[in-house]
Amino acid sequence: MSATLSLDQLSAAVEAGEIDTVMTAVVDMQGRLMGKRFHAAHFLERAGAETHGCDYLLALDVEMTPVPGYASASWERGYGDYVHRPDLSTLRRAAWEPSSALVMCDLLDHHGEPVAVAPRNVLRRQVERARALGLEPMMATELEFFLFEESFEQLWDEGYRRMTPLVRWNNDYNLYGSSKEEAVMRPLRRALWESGVPVENTKGEAEAGQHEVNVRYGPAMETADHHAVVKTAVKQVAAAAGRSVTFMAKYATDRAGSSSHIHQSLWRDGRNAFLDRGAPHGMSELMRSYLAGLLAHADATTLFLAPFVNSYKRFTVGMFAPTKAVWSRDNRTAGYRVCGEDTGAIRVECRIGGADLNPYMALAALLAAGLDGIEKGLVLEEEMAGDMYRAEGARRIPATLRDAAEAARRSDMLRAAFGDEVVEHYHHAARWEIGEAERSVTDWDRRRGFERL
To answer: How far apart are CA 283 and CA 226, in angstroms?
Structure first.
């Protein structure tokens, strides 16, 4: 049974009673899948060409609040529609839902032009930029999350105050410990594989109740699509088992955070263009310039790797989240780690991103920075070795969302790669997030000051 589907295969599956629902999905600013569930017969008859949805999907915060001040969508503009055009190359079975299929859609305006600020379109432009240089971006994300005993509904009703990790202790790589999570993880692996997502493995991670999903390295757009699908499937499979998960970058003060490390390389004519076996450490000049671009623009790209106020609470010494935007070989304390030295799998792993990132925007920002390094022939700085947490004078990752947002706003590289409209749009989103956080009274405020002040 094929997981990915042509329209003819979908039609046959509908006729056979195997599929009765098709989900159309666009990606919002937070990286979530938003769309509609169609009767499969209607999708085949009409919606397979295009459907429509409110343009406010790219002007909302996490709470689905319409945020004022966007140029692309507002009350003044009437919150009209965008065209959702199915990318039929992404049509697949959605094995985590009964009798369902899923297709990713691209966002177009009423003139048929791609919506500039739509995450999938932003990434596509950077992929096309690489291809114009004869290069194919190949990437992978490692996605971490926490799995809890309680259901989503229980935690909501209790104000998220008594979350119980399903495994009580750090079960990093521990097969016995992670066996306790298999009631969720085994059906997840099966559902993803049956849905055309080439999941390689799942594993216990380095904190109580933490887990990780790894999907096969592949083309950048495919990787971002798989990442978005995995997050949706994880939540639905957990919910079906009466459990809950979180992809917050940092859900508790005394726990490690959840990351989304991004592996990346550029290929030419079916070969890894980052590899030069005759060069030091097997790193080609192309790779060295790409990595130099990542480092030169590390401040500006952090907004898309850590897009929320909470994201910056993950950057904690000694908890495997980096604090320095430097490069090192096979060193998990550095923001940029070179892996696979002298092998065909040589690549750069960016360790800055959290599990809360939007994969399309994160991959696009890294590609933009790396390609700028190639186009300008940037020279790679010297490697740093040892414990980067203790490194003096090393380039630091921005400490707050405000710092990262301002770095992105000021970046000539991002403005040239994404366009002013995109940079201003996502800078505005960050400013709104900061304002919402600063005006909110938290449990910490009450515990600290209720009686003692």
So the answer is: 28
Q: Which amino acid is at 14?
A: V
Specify whether the CB–CB gap between 24 and 35 falls below 8 A: yes
Give dist(CA 84, CA 97) in Å, integer.
22
Domains in the chain (CATH in brackets) are 7-115 (3.10.20.70), 126-445 (3.30.590.10)
β-bridge mates for residue 145, sequence order:
211
Task: Determine contact, residues 185/178, Cβ cutoff 8 Å.
Answer: yes
- One DSSP character per residue, 220-239 reads HHHHHHHHHHHHHHHHHHHH
Burial class of 24 by CB neighbour count within 10 A (0 to 12, 13 to 18, 19+): buried
Give the tokens for residue 255: 């726990």
pLDDT tens digits for range 111-170 = 999 999 999 999 999 999 999 999 999 999 999 999 999 999 999 999 998 899 998 888
* pTM for this entry: 0.96
Pairing assessment for the beta strands 260-268 and 136-148 based on DSSP bridges = antiparallel
The answer to whether the beta carbons of residues 119 and 228 sit under 8 Å apart is no
Length in residues, the chain: 453
Bridge pairing between strands 92-93 and 100-108: antiparallel
pLDDT digits (tens, 9 = 90+) for 63-87: 999 999 999 998 988 999 999 999 9
Distances (CA, A) of 135 to 342, 358, 371: 20, 23, 10
